[in-house]
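Obj.: predict assembly geometry.
Materials: sequence records (below).
Method: joint structure prediction, all chains together.
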Amino acid sequence: MPKIQVENLTKIFGRQPQRALQLLEQGRSKQEILKETGLTVGVNQANFEVHAGEIFVIMGLSGSGKSTLVRLLNRLIEPTSGRVLIDGQDIVRMNTEQLQEVRRKKLGMVFQKFALFPHRTVLDNAAYGLEVQNVPKAEREKKAQESLALVGLAGWEKSYPDQLSGGMQQRVGLARALANEPDVLLMDEAFSALDPLIRKDMQDELLELQSSMQKTIIFITHDLDEALKIGDRIALMKDGAVVQVGSPEEILTNPANEYVERFVEDVDRSKILSAEHVMKRAETITLDRGPRVALQLMRDRGVSTLYVVDKRKMLLGVLTADAVNEAKQEGKTLEDVLRKEVPTVGPQTLLNDLFDLVAFSDVPVAVVEEQGKLLGVIVKGAVLGGLAGKVNQETGLPTDEGQVKEQ
Amino acid sequence: MIPKLPLDEWVETIVDVLDDKLGFLFDLISAGIGGTVDLFHFILTGLPFWVLLIVFTLLAYRAGKLSIALFTFIGLLLIQNLGYWEHSMQTLALVLTAGLISVVIGIPVGIWCARKDAVQNVITPMLDFMQTMPAFVYLIPAIFFFGLGQVPGVIASVIFAMPPTIRLTNLGIRQVPSDLIEAADSFGSTYFQKLFKVQLPIAKTTMMAGINQSIMLALSMVVIASMIGAKGLGADVYRAVTQIKIGEGFEAGLAIVIIAILLDRITQSVGKRKNA
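Observations (raw structure tokens):
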């Protein structure tokens, strides 16, 4: 069961919103409905699932309805129609008490402009969520303190929000949301008001926290780079509708429509695509073969290097054409001329970090798993191809293509 | 020609009916207000002059600057010297009672206005009416229901003085940034948790400005209230006017000004004090 399931969720602003519902179902656009009824479509029949433990990014330009959508999830804004199931319970149908209970126990929210209470100390801010649950003072202050320590604010408990910098204020915002120990964090443009350097730090810290907390995070942003960096999956919104949901790679390499394509065309692919997206199938050989077989294989395949693997496809080294020729003439075995120092990278290495290695290596760089299993190789041209956005055609995503060829 | 609407007769009829049916209620209110005024009066005149002098000076000092404390000290000595101490305390008792009632009624009404637009839409014109109707007019029904003396004076003062407290409580709560309200809601606050933990503390400065205004308006009513038998400085001023005694009128007026400045500075500082 998904942690959060959103079904046909719609928000229409204005009087008598029901008038617009039918038009939406007929597939009329936001602009047409505004013209005809004077009603504004905030969110248009959104459908998606969020799994436990993932960072689900909702991205779109301003006015695309992403902030409205996240507020529908905890009913800060009342949905016009549709369902929001959290752990299978539809919060749209809950009464006030039930809703308060879900907000207290399951949902924490972090706001764009921090929304800290100016009259409360940092500690009292962080303890607010527990205070409204009537947790005893000593206990809630202890938890708030732990939560503040988690975001690196130990020692600032007695300060007031206006005494802190923007980055620190948002840490308080995060600590306040975490103190309740909610399953789900809703982060509404949480880092958008921060300057770029602080912002990058916060993103890194969030990812680090997430690796130990495993919360379900719904993160709203208008910044594609941010979305691609922290999102396990991304939902792209336009005019209130969810246009595409997918992993960062899917969004980049397989845009659902022209809008997504335009959105992603300026992305720095070198920071998104990794070795596994641009690697080629490796031409391999085992050590029990002789030099003549190796040379024949090179000729057949039109390559000048062969990768040597054992039966379990563990990478042993590389053979160049020159070395094999030498072995053939001097009667050596392949093992004698095997070059064991091969440049290797992991499949998740970003293109950005590959440039140096690939540029200055005389043999293709090997892509290996942690245990040493050879997955493929990266030739110089493939890196350029990846940057140009030609991942699919040229080298293929990590499908069968990328696997080591059976001997 | 349309004949004149008998508005005057209608109002008189309503007042008659009210007096007839709700007389016990007015007696109750009268007793409550009278008791409060008497209590303040008892405290303020029961304590020796020098004790109150020290208390007020300390209050003023706590409220802010040394200069205000100094002003209070000299001002109160001057009032004592001129012989208006007793009357000043009577006036203060009246003003404090009117201010207290304004706050006790005004703040909940202001909160109610902030919660519901419909309530605000009904209350706002009533407040406009209360503030613009000449204050003398309130004296007539006040006498009718409560007789002569302190109580109708307080009632008339409350009607005239309460609007700022209601208005600024409403405004202060409505001005709390919407993201703070969202934050409070998103953590599952109940209505009253949100009110007491977020809205009222943040609205406090604005609300105190309203309370300050209410107290000042109540003070401005003392002369008018003296026309229906309220004792104190107002009566002195009123008598000086009717007998054209310029010197006496100036002295009593000066005492009112001193008390006004004192009340203003002390109540203002309560609102301004830093969160900590």
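Conclusions so far: The mean pLDDT of chain B is 89.
To do: check interface contacts against the pulldown list.
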